[in-house]
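Incident log, structure service

09:12 report received: a user says their structure output differs between two submissions of the same chain.
09:20 pulled the input from the user's history:
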Amino acid sequence: MLEPHERFAIFRLIQADRPSNRETLQTTALYAAQVVLAVTLLLVGYHLWSSHAALWAVVSAIMVVQPAMEQSIATSAVRIAANIVGGMCGIIVGHFLGNGVWQFLLALVSCVFFCELMKLDLGLRTACVSVAVIMLRSEGGKVVSTASDRMIDVFIGCVTALCVQLIAERVRKKLGWHGPDMSAVMNQPPRAPDVHSA
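09:34 re-ran on a clean worker, output below:
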């Protein structure tokens, strides 16, 4: 069991170093509205197209929506690039070598090295997850169709999130909500706990 002062040290590792005030609540409300709007648009769109595969589009939209437009653009670019790299590694290995355990591991290693060559450090984990999703979820060895579907869904989700972000930026400016500079907060690494303060 953790001592009370140890519990607070864990909170310091995961909590952002920022105040909670009216401006942060405005940013939170706008963010929640953006996520709900993007997800609703995707679910309705996929339903109208009689497609039940909205999962990766929805996940992408949620991951791309950020408090600042610049962050959303950067996040969507990284996510799209990472899914292309992961998808291509999965497609190449799966198509030419088959879809088994050693092929999956080879695709993962290939993906890591491609990310290194492209200096895609921010997308490394997403690219590896993409390989896993493509190679472990492809039914009947349909790696190519699983990969292409996922890449298209990721692209649709990212574009939808960016469109919603543009609308949100206009609404925010119209309402005069300036909010805090959340970009610095969102990119800030967690603080190390102060070992002397307990």
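09:41 both user submissions now match this output. Likely a transient worker issue. Closing.
09:42 reviewer note: Residues 21-186 form one domain. The radius of gyration is 20 Å.
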